[in-house]
Amino acid sequence: MDEVFAFLRSESSADLTLQGLHTGHTECALGRWYYGAGQAFAGDPDFDALADPHRGMHQSCEEIFSAIEKRSDRPALRKLLEALSENSTRVATCLQRLETRLLVDELSRPRLGA
After folding, report:
1. Is residue 8 very low, low, confident or very high in pLDDT (cuts 50, 70, 90)?
2. pLDDT value at position 71?
3. Could you give the CA distance from residue 45 to residue 74 in angstroms, rounded to a whole number?
4. In the chain, where are the structural domains located?
5. pLDDT band at 112 (very low <50, low <70, confident <90, very high)
6. What DSSP letter does each residue of 52-100 carry, written as one string?
7. Radius of gyration of the CA atoms of the chain, in A
8. Which of 12, 18, 31, 87 could form a disulfide with 57 if both were Cys (CB 3.0 to 4.6 A apart)?
9. C-alpha closest to that of 85 among 11, 6, 19, 2
10. Residue 70: its pLDDT value, please?
11. What topology is assigned to 24-107 in CATH?
12. For residue 89, what are the contacts with CB-CB under 8 A and spacing of at least 6?
């Protein structure tokens, strides 16, 4: 998502290159964790709920870059940015819930020697 906003803020046409800005949902840092070590949390409702909005974020990025290349009008671009923002919020919410639950679980465990 940072790449999208950096691209949109670029001031000269020389900065407006889309090459290499977007990665797939399995190649970004979250995707590598989710489809790798994160699979230890498979079955957790908040972990499982990450998949669709995370994939949606990447789809929105692709559509935004395509719209920019096609010089789409601002209302069309705004709609795509809103979808990106909505999916980003959903991802953040799932991650926060997962983190909170893990912290509560950790704090609820009996301590050795206590």
Report:
1. low
2. 84
3. 37
4. 24-107
5. confident
6. HHHHHHHHHHHHHHHHHHTT--HHHHHHHHHHHHHHHHHHHHHHHHHHH
7. 18
8. 87
9. 2
10. 85
11. Four Helix Bundle (Hemerythrin (Met), subunit A) (1.20.120)
12. none
- Position with higher pLDDT, 32 vs 65: 32
Residues 59-106 pLDDT 10s: 998 898 888 888 888 888 899 999 999 999 999 999 999 999 999 988
**Degrees to nearest 5, angle at CA 25 with 20 and 26:** 100
Q: What is the rounded distance in angstroms from the CA atom of residue 10 to the CA atom of residue 4?
A: 10
Element (H, E) at 44: none
Tokens of 83: 């979808």
